[in-house]
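Form 7-S
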Amino acid sequence: MTQIKYSVIIPVYNAERTLKRCLDSLLGQKREDVEIILINDGSSDGSRAILEDYGSRFLNVRAVHQENAGVSAARNRGLDEAEGKYITFVDSDDYVSENYFRAMDEAGEKEDSDLIVFAKDIAGQGIDESNLYKKMCAASSLQEQRELLLSSRIIFQPPYKRFKREIIEKNHLRFIKGMYVGEDFNFCFAYMLACRKIKIEHKKIYFIDVSENDSLSRKYREDIDKQLQWEIKEAVKTLKNSGLSSEDKDELLRILDYFMARNIFTCIAETFKAGKPSYRKNRNRYLIMCAEFSTPIYRTGTYKNKIHRLLRVLLYRRMPFPLYIVTKIVKGKEFQRYQKKE
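Output:
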């Protein structure tokens, strides 16, 4: 019996339009040492029929059905089911390159890194991350890699990365149930801190399709502020409990505090979903948000950059108007265009 090298975990929820493309991109590579674990998270469309069809035709495709419990629970179920030496995550509306597994093989043969990070392509957005990847590839230390992966947010998503199942199980890593903002980040961040060797590869082996996923179409999330605070606080707890030196922890805490302060923009933008941007209507809500994010998680008085320092001043002094203006300029028109379509 062929030993399983890769376990590919794919959460599926109402993905009938893109699921076949996703599966075909993986199965077209004809790898006998790959298992594809599909977690049907209570889909109500034709996804179940597609999963059962592929499961009946391919021995290495395994479909698991569960009641809708969210993407975190689906990925956790996939981890429970996985038998491969390495874990990769793929989203059902995305697809992979024809050399997806070969690229992982080649990168792993050079050095058996605990985490291998590849590049992705976001369809239609033309984002060029070449300079960022050159910088990460040139990083001279593990700590420098951690700082770059965190500050660039590359560590925020599980796809386009190769994980070791041994490290996941040894450290009892799972996605946090009930967290729907940042659950990906917390898993990847905790895993990164457990790594002794990280490899960066500037090879685009993962393709993100945003045509079916307009983030502006999501319903208004009333507790977005609580979710974002939970996200960062869990990351801080993980970091403080890690075996890193105090100096290394301090630098990562500074970056996390910067993210915490920046979350005020996400919270303000969320109010735009309920109607046209209005400072007067939401002023009291914005003041409460400023208070919620005003306490820093890093107290040395140093900052990641000038923006970080300015944000901390505005939050501490409860001055939401400049923050509202910036958010309106960046996000306001996007939400208004979406509302017109509706």
